[in-house]
């Protein structure tokens, strides 16, 4: 393992692991002399870590939004009072409400926490402008850059810049690395102010029966044997993205998104075809097909079109409910059914996501299969599984083991 042995494999692992920290710092533009990179399992763990490391009291306010992934909402709820800034009718951040809430809770806001790009709509947030406002109010900002990182350059800005991002979290799997690795980037001095939220091997300099002397950063907050291969893969993915150039990625995805939105707009059965929105979003498009349940649309795309999409609420229930503009009685009824184990009528959307490898041919295939779903001309006799809400073709024998199995 790293930092623990004099053997060749240990020395090599240590070298690669330390390099991974340096590369991720470079990827987000963090000053390595004043900031630290902490690796963990994912963005969820990174945000939970910060929620326990941030000094909070019963009177503290964490200013968030209704647009957040649950991972940037739930970790704060047991630690402080979470105030959710609203969204406009079309799903964008209500910045006027942000200003109101920041002023209303002046002196109590311990942190502003917001996603740089929505995992549901792909809408980009003015994080640097919000950072300036947060700093003027005497607080810090954390930016969930999981959805942004593979699509746009993440820029923390210099520490003394009024628009500096104090904390940034990333997800390796969103950046084309394997699952199981995420990162938290933030001020080294901040993390040196206290002990880790969970201690263990590698987090200390000296331990006696009466004393604990914590290690420096990032060791203090990376307890136990780390996922060296995961960190290495995440760093390599960051290197490749930097070599391609995030401006080139952004240009390609903007053209592809505009093309997809234009084609979606041509079908009156599909909601959310608005080409004008291509410039202010990453390559994520949510939609619904009129008269066809979102889970069924996803099933047709997957089983018959070979197209991988996700459907549902995308771990962002409040935001999706807002986007769908559901009346209160409908919200209450589906919530009761879901809690009773029936997801057959759970509201949601279908989400198509583009990567730097996606092409217009991929979009054309998506549109072709959406026409099939909208017209009801799909081949399968789909059966609803109420417990999951998913549709599966009757008699379907999934050939998964032919592709991969551990036995």
Task: Give the topology.
Layout: H1 8-28, E1 35-40, H2 43-53, E2 61-65, H3 74-77, E3 81-85, H4 95-104, E4 109-115, H5 127-136, E5 140-144, E6 167-171, E7 182-187, H6 188-191, E8 204-207, E9 212-214, H7 228-244, H8 246-265, E10 270-271, E11 284-289, H9 294-305, E12 310-312, H10 317-324, H11 328-339, E13 349-353, H12 360-375, E14 382-385, E15 390-393, H13 400-403
Parallel strand pairs: 2-3, 2-4, 4-5, 5-6
Antiparallel strand pairs: 1-7, 6-7, 8-9, 10-11, 11-13, 12-13, 14-15
Helix pairs in contact: 1-7, 8-12, 9-12
List keywords for this structure.
407 residues; alpha/beta; Aspartate Aminotransferase, domain 2; Aspartate Aminotransferase, domain 1; 2 domains; seven-stranded mixed β-sheet; four-stranded antiparallel β-sheet
Largest sheet: 7 strands, mixed
CATH architecture of the largest domain: 3-Layer(aba) Sandwich
Number of domains: 2
In CATH, the topology of the largest domain is named Aspartate Aminotransferase, domain 2
CATH top level assignment of the largest domain = Alpha Beta
Q: Low-confidence parts lasting 5 or more residues at pLDDT below 50?
A: none
Q: Give the count of helical stretches.
A: 13
- Determine the N-to-C terminus distance: 29 Å
The spatial strand order of the largest sheet comes to 1-7-6-5-4-2-3
- The count of β-strands is 15
- Rg from Cα: 23 Å
- The percentage helix is 25-40%
What is the assigned CATH homologous superfamily of the largest domain?
A: Type I PLP-dependent aspartate aminotransferase-like (Major domain)
Strand content: 15-25%
């Amino acid at each position: 393992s790293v930092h623990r042995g004099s053997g060749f494999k240990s020395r090599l692992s240590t070298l690669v692991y330390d390099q991974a920290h340096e590369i991720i710092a470079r990827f987000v533009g963090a000053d390595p002399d004043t900031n630290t990179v902490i690796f963990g399992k994912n963005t969820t763990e990174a945000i939970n870590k910060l929620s326990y490391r941030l000094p909070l009291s019963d009177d503290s306010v964490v200013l968030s939004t209704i647009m957040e992934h649950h991972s940037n909402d739930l970790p704060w709820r047991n630690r402080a009072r979470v105030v959710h800034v609203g969204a406009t009718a079309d799903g964008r951040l209500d910045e006027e409400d942000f200003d109101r809430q920041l002023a209303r809770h002046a002196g109590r806001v311990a942190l502003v926490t917001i996603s740089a790009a929505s995992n549901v709509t792909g809408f980009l947030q003015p994080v640097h402008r919000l950072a300036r406002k947060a700093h003027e109010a005497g607080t810090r900002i954390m930016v969930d850059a999981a959805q942004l990182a593979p699509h746009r350059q993440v820029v923390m800005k210099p520490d003394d810049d009024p628009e500096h991002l104090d904390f940034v979290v990333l997800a390796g799997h969103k950046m084309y690395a394997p699952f199981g690795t995420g990162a938290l980037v933030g001020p080294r001095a901040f993390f040196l102010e206290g002990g880790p939220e969970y201690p263990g091997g590698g987090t200390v300099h000296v331990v006696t029966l009466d004393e604990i002397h914590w290690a420096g950063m990032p060791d203090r907050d990376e307890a136990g044997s780390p996922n060296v291969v995961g960190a290495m893969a995440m760093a390599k993915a960051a290197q490749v993205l930097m070599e391609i150039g995030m401006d080139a990625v952004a240009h390609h995805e903007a053209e592809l998104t505009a093309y997809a939105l234009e084609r979606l707009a041509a079908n009156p059965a599909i909601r959310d075809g608005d080409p004008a929105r291509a410039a202010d979003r990453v390559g994520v498009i949510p939609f619904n097909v009129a008269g066809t349940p979102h889970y069924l649309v996803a099933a047709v795309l997957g089983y018959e079109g070979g197209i991988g999409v996700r459907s549902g609420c995308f771990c962002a229930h409040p935001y999706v409910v807002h986007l769908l503009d559901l009346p209160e009685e409908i919200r209450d009824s589906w919530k009761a059914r879901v809690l009773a184990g029936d997801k057959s009528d759970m509201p949601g959307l279908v989400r198509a996501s583009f990567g730097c490898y996606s092409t217009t041919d991929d979009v054309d295939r998506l549109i072709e299969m959406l026409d099939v779903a909208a017209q009801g001309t799909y081949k399968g006799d789909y059966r609803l599984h109420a417990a999951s809400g998913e549709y599966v073709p009757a008699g379907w024998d999934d050939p998964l083991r032919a592709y991969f199995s551990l036995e």
